[in-house]
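User: Predict Translation machinery-associated protein 16's structure from this.
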Amino acid sequence: MPPTKTKPARSSSSKKGPKEKVFHPESRKAGQLERKLLRKQKLEKASVTKSRNSPNVIVDRNVFFLHALPEDAIALTLSDVHDILRDVWLARFDHLIEAEQAARRSGRPRSTKEDKLLEMKRQNTEEYRTGIDIPDLTHLATVALFRKWNADDPGFLTLLRWIRVTSENPHEVVLVREGNEKALLHAAAAAGLSLDLGQHAVDSALGHDGMDENVVEEELAADLHDLL
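Assistant:
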């Protein structure tokens, strides 16, 4: 019986994989792929924005600024605000990042936790660079009202005066929200401050110098009576 002929095995290298589909840039399929990519990018951007603006994130952020206020301060200067943002706000994760780095063995990749912390710091740094919205801690009445917040109701924060500050232009302030005038005036009166809602930390001392204490109290009473 003649020996059975065996076909030589084809080299695996000779096998051709599936051809990559190439679409004409103006074809219908190319348009669909482009729209799909744009939608994905929009969803990713919306996800970041949503997480940044979610109630829990807003509350947590403003709890930080509330606790950052010195107990005896009626307001901060703009320089103080930037010091807090730069040296405390942006650095609040540094000890956790350092702990993750210390626990990582040489040559090992970063942990998921470290990646998340670094990304959060990067986002915060970029937000501060381009403009971060915060309660106006330089505004006397806003600080007085802010101190009344129970740190769990995000709706209360809409009563405050809000500003936008940036690390690129530290001397520039943009008014984002004027706040609720009635609530601000009540808080100022309760704190024994002038009811001039234009007063900020930089001029608060000038506003009281040379003014008789009784006159100040009479003006407070008169303004509050008109308000009510």
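DSSP finds nine helices and three strands in the chain.
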